[in-house]
Every structure is written in C-alpha cells, then in structure tokens.
Amino acid sequence: MRSLGLQARILLLTAAGIAAISLLYFLSEAYIQVSNGERRMNEQSRSIGAALVPSLQNDLVVGDLATAQQILDSIMKYEHFDRLAILDAAGDKVLVEGRILDGADTDQVSPAWFSALLKLRHDPIEMPIQAGGIVYGVLVAAPSPKILEDDLWRQLRLMFYLSLFILVVALPLFILTLRSGLKPLRKLAASAQKFGDGDFSRRASESSVREVAQTARAFNRMAGNIENLLGELRASNATIRSMNETLELRVQERTAELEAANQELEAFSYSVSHDLRAPLRALDGYSHLLAEDPQSQIGKDGRHYIERIRASSQRMAQLIEDLLDLARISRHELKHVPVDLSAMANEVRELVEEQAPLRKVAWNIAPGLSASGDPVLLKALLDNLLRNAWKFTSESPDARIEFVLCNVGGGKAFCVRDNGAGFEMAYADKLFKPFQRLHDAKRFEGTGIGLAIVYRILRRHGGKIWAEGSPGLGAAFFFTLP
Amino acid sequence: MSRPVRFVLAMFMALAAQVHAAEPRPLVFGVLNQQSPVLTAERWNPILQYLSQVTGIPLQLRMGRTVQETDAMMGRGEFDLAYTNHNFQTEFDGVYKVIARWGGDPIRCVIVVPAGSPLKTMKDLQGKRLAFPSADAFIAYAVPKVALLSAAVKVEEVFAGNQEGALAQLKAQQVEGAVVNSRFLVQYAQRENLSYREIFVSEAYAELPIIVHPRVPKGQVDALRRALIGMQHDPRATPLLLKLKFPGFEPAVDREYDNVRRIYRVIGE
Prior knowledge:
The structure holds 2 protein chains of 2 kinds. By secondary structure, chain A is of the alpha+beta class. Chain A contains 9 helices and 11 strands. Chain A has a 5-stranded mixed β-sheet with strand order 6-8-9-11-10, with helices on one face. Helices cover 41% and strands 18% of the residues of chain B. Chain B is built from 9 helices and 11 strands. Chain B starts with a helix and ends with a helix.
C-alpha cells in the first residue's frame, strides 16, 4: 500500500468501499427479504387456508371428499404448500391428502445448498373445518418455502449480475474519470519532480481544480524563492571563490616573500656564524700561543685574563656552532623513511654512557618504537632529549631515564621521562625557545639551544611537543609524529 | 374352515358386536337444500345437538350437494329422519311419516307486480317475464306453476336464484312480475319500501315437516317427537331459538300436507 500511487489508492479504497457498502446492502436486504418472505409465506398460507375452509365446509358437510380432493390438488399445483391435507375431527385419520399431479411445475430453481443456508421457517398450520358447532375435519397446511427460495435466489442472481455489470462498465468509467480528475495533480507532481532533478526554472501549470491550483501556486512561489536564493548563493560563492583565489595568491606571495626573507636571514645567520668562527679561532689560537709562550712577559694576572679570553671565545664558538646546527636543521632537506626510534635511543644511550662510564643510570627504552621521518633529524631529536635527561639527572642519586610510548588524552605519544631536576610548569612555554635556560649554567652546562632544535625538527615533521615537570621530581617530554 | 378357527372368528365377531353396541349408530338426519350446506349445518347442527342431548339419541346431519342429490338420498332411505316436504312427491310418498313441523304460520304463494303496473289479473301475465327463485322451490315455483297451468297462462320464466333476487329484479323492472312466499314478501317490502300489487295468492301451506323412517324404533320416535315439540318450552333451548330466530317445532300429522301432495301430482312429479 505504501508504494501505491494516489490513483491506485483511491481506486482501491473506492472499490473496497463499494464492496463493503454492497455487501452490507446485500446482507441487510437479504435479511429483510428473508424475514418478510417468511412472514408473507406464513401469512399467505394462513390466508389460503382461511379461504379454503369455507369451500371445504360445504364438501365436508355433504361428505363430498372427492370435491375436497380436487380442491386440495388444485391448490397443491401452485406449490405454496409442502402438504395440504384434511384430517378427521380428532386429527388422527387422513381424510384427504393433497397431491401434486402430473404437469405441475416442481422444478426447483434455487440449489439445495441455498435452501440449506436459508433454513426458512415454515410452520404448518392447522385450521378446524366446522359448521354449526360440529368439527368435520382439520385442514393441515404446511407452507412450502420453494417459491420464496426461488424468488430470493433470483434476486441474488440479479444482484450478482448487476454487480458484474457495474464492475465491467462502471469501473472503467470510474477509472477514466479518476485519471482525468488526477491529471492536474500528475502534472503538478511532474513539475515537482523536474524541479527536484535540478530544473529550477520549472513551474507548475495552472489548474481548474481549486485545491490543485492552490498547491500549484504555493509550489511556484516556493520554486521562485528557491531560485532567487540559489541565484544569491551562486553570486556569494563566486565572490568567495574570487576572494579565496586572491587570498591564496596573496598568501603565496607573502609566503614566498617570507621564505625568501627567511632564507636570506638564515643565509645571513649562517654566513655570520661561519664567518665569525674564523676570527674566534684566531683569537683563541693566538691567546693560547700567548699563554703558552715561555718567553712571554705576561704575569700571573695577565695569564688569568688570557684564560678568561680563551674561555669566552670558546663559549662563543660553541654558541656559533649551536646556531649553525639550528640553521642546518632548517636547511636540511627532509626525507620520510621508516625509522627505528628504539635503536636510535639505544645508540644515544651507549654514546653518553661511554662519555661518563662512572655514572649509574637506570634506562628504560621500550623496544619496537618506530616512526616515519627523516633519520638524521630524528636522531638529532632523540640525541637532544636523551642528553638533556642525562644532564639533568646528573645530581640524582637513583637516576632513571625512560623512552616509552604513553597514552595521552585518548591518543599515543612518545615520551622521554626522567627523575632529574625538573622545572616549574609556569616556565614551560619558554623551554623550546633558543637560548632560554631555566637552570643555573654552573650546575647544568649548555647553551639553551637543544630544545629549540627539538622543537624545530618536530615542526618540520608536522609533529608536536610539550612538556610536564616539577622541580626536583623530574621532567617528561611528550612528542608526536604524523 | 376348522373348528378352532371358526371359534376364534365367532369370538371376534361377538366382541365386535359388543363394541358396536357400546357406541350406538347415530340416526341420520337429512335436511332439504334450502340454503348452502354450511348455512344448513350452522342452523341444524345446534338443533340436532340439543335433541341428542335431550333424548340421548345421537343425530348426524346429512344432505346432498343439490336438492336432487338430497332427494335421491331420501329415496334410497339413507335418512332416518328428514326435514323436507319432497317426500310428498308421488315417487317418494308413503314411506316417511310426519312427526312434527317447523313452527310458524302457514305460508302462501304470492304473484306480485309493481303497484303501478297495468297488470291486474292472471290473464294479464300471459307472455310476461316472471321471476322465480328456483325451479326446485315448492311454494314459489310448484304452487304458482299449477295456478298458471290452471289459468292457462304461459309466462317467460326467469330464475333469480332466491326470493331476494326475484323481488330485486322486479324492483329493477327487469321482470313484469315475481313469485315469492307471503312471509318473505312482507319482510322485503318493509325493508326495501317496495310497493306492490298481488295478482295471485295461493292457499296456505304448512311449514316443512320432520319426517321419520319406519325403521326407527317407536321409542326413539316418541322421544324425538317429545323433544321437538317441547323445545319451545325448554329453557335450555331458549338461547338457541333466539339465536336462530326460530319459534320451535309444532305438532303435525301427515294429512296436513295433502295440499302439497296435490300440487306434486298436478305437476306430475
């Protein structure tokens, strides 16, 4: 039913309605016909019996049973009775029994099952035949339901043929009328279909059917509004697209400018750093020669000053070297290959342990940690983080360094954790900026460029890094790689 | 037939005779067809029931469909008693005996014409249309027939079925004259405001008698005669007499009907 069209639904509902009404009409009519028929049949039997009695009176008074027989036979011919007889006054002995003689129409029109279904009530009646207080006999008349059954059967057949006629003739007419009546609706549906398929200029045609005309007008208003909105939307989209194109161009230009500026800056930085190393080496070298010259007239204080000059120049050289490293990170051509981080971490561990074989540190490097990225840069990343941990656990009696995979915020992140000096979380945002130091340089040497290098490596890979820590309790660095 | 069988048969017949004796055969009472059998039964059955109740003699009404059938039944002796005067016809006369008669004044035959009719004598009726109730009627047909024969007047006979019809035809001027009995004429004239002139009035004839067949035992005849004559004095019969508008039976003897016999002899019946 859900998939049926309006026409089929109306047709089905109408047919069902007509069938239901016809059935109800037929049943009620049949009930009335049967009731009235039964009543008429019994009344008719009683009337015929009442009419028979006077004529039978004369026959019985004169004892003319032959004439009475003729009368009963003549009545039986009309099939109103199953039995018509005259009994004696006591009702024991049959004086005359009505007979159905040859030639009488005894054909039953209605079938036997119809008679069995109806079960018409036909009670026999008994009428005394008397005159002057003497009962001469009793007329027994058992009405026959045959005529009524035949009448009802004929009516039933007539109604059946009538229904058939309606189906054959009236139903096609009804379908044609219905199709004609639904034509405006079908046109409206076709317009809506076309509109739905993208033909936004489509409009419903006018109709003489009031309801359809109202719907068509409402549809046309809606279609007009949608078409206007679509026009505005197209214009807006064109503007946005134009703006996007302009913006993209501007971004590209600005990016190119920035990249150029950055490259110039990096080149400048590299050049300066590189060029600064030569005079520093000269400074350091000549200071060394001056301090080591046996023939030098420089006194004790002078030597102290020369040492100070050398220390500063060496520190400056280290700073320049770190700056060059940082610049190299930016200039390094990035590769993406599978990298075994666990193996790299173990290599770093071995290097730092060789440099300080007396230190006792509990290492926990999880096996099988891997990622996709540039092996040189990722090696530098792990080197900086693990060396950082190594450095800041130097004062811890039970130093412990871990490189594991952690569950963080519903995701996974690599984690380098130690139980070293730690840091104040308030300064966490300064950790990854160049030359920013949170600890005294005398306790923990360094230039403050390592975590800046780590930050830059992860940024180039599209990863993230953040840190958690607490003074005296250690620090944890979490990073992700795409 | 073997002796045991004859013995059993004899015993059976004796038993049957006893049963028959226990239920006496009703006397058959014939009634002349003056009315339809039903109307006759409605009039006579109550009378017969009364008589049976009074005398203890069961009586059964019997009649033929027509006058001829009834007369034939009488001729065959099928009636033990009868209410008729057809027994005075020559062919039946001498068998049944009169024991009583229907009560009331004697009646006469009257030939009437409208009061303004130019017909004044029997001779004037020559060739005229005369309405009779029926050819079976005694007073209204046999008696005037004899009178007309005596006067040598030949009329065109029109049978109206009954006396009512005969006078109705006269009133409607379908006939020039009508023949009825004197009692009915008075009743009709009063009821229908009929003005008439009598052309002929016969002698008086006694009402129909109750006659009895000689085979009926004398004791039963006497009992029945007493019951018949005593009916008009019996309070038990009063409602019935009133209902039937019947004065009761009166004593009668056979010679009171000699004038009837004469009429039948004249007309050759």
